[in-house]
Amino acid sequence: xxxxxxxxxxxxxxxxxxxxxxxxxxxxxxxxxxxxxxxxxxxxxxxxxxxxxxxxxxxxxxxxxxxxxxxxxxxxxxxxxxxxxxxxxxxxxxxxxxxxxxxxxxxxxxxxxxxxxxxxxxxxxxxxxxxxxxxxxxxxxxxxxxxxxxxxxxxxxxxxxxxxxxxxxxxxxxxxxxxxxxxxxxxxxxxxxxxxxxxxxxxxxxxxxxxxxxxxxxxxxxxxxxxxxxxxxxxxxxxxxxxxxxxxxxxxxxxxxxxxxxxxx
Length: 265
What we know:
Layout: E1 30-34, H1 37-45, E2 52-56, E3 61-65, E4 73-77, H2 81-94, E5 99-108, E6 118-127, H3 145-157, E7 162-170, H4 178-186, E8 191-193, H5 196-206, E9 209-219, E10 226-227, H6 232-249, H7 253-256
Parallel strand pairs: 1-4, 1-5, 5-9, 6-7, 7-8
Antiparallel strand pairs: 2-3, 3-4, 5-8, 6-9, 9-10
Helix pairs in contact: 2-5, 3-6
């Protein structure tokens, strides 16, 4: 037997496998997937006393913090859409990631869900093309309930109102039609975004955990587009989401070197 031979790839496996190279570090069990650059930058600023090690993967970057804590934390991003997010998560799973915390923006489908509000997605209606390549047994895949409960507890601790429920994942933001918006709203879908269904499917396929915290960046409920990308409400909601996510992971405030007033900015 040749111990140096590579394992044979089965007929249902991809020829290109995510793997750790000689120059790759291991990552921490808890990984934040920050879709939006401003969120990633803000998270980095919450660790002013910690020097981050940066690793360029070509199509995304990730950052490791050596914290005086049972485990460190890895930040990755920015990421846009299901294909890039899944490629990044595949690589980070290969490097040791186990619990993935998605952080991003979404468009509201309900008039009572406003710009700056937080959503914890429980499942996602799939209208993206990546999930179909990862066959799973579950017909209605869900985010990890344990991670979702930790996010809810963190938001409660910060006295922050939030919404929890299903979202709609699309590949085509310019095809969010009135017919679809009305139909999904009637089904109880809270918002539309571009990554969650693929991340949920990949997590089940690779036997890891994923949950998410989304901030409303724009509103579609009135069948007129109301963008809020440069609003104070979105900035405040996003920064609060970043702090809540770190609290959910269990990173003590003292290790972040930031203002311990959790409700502040």
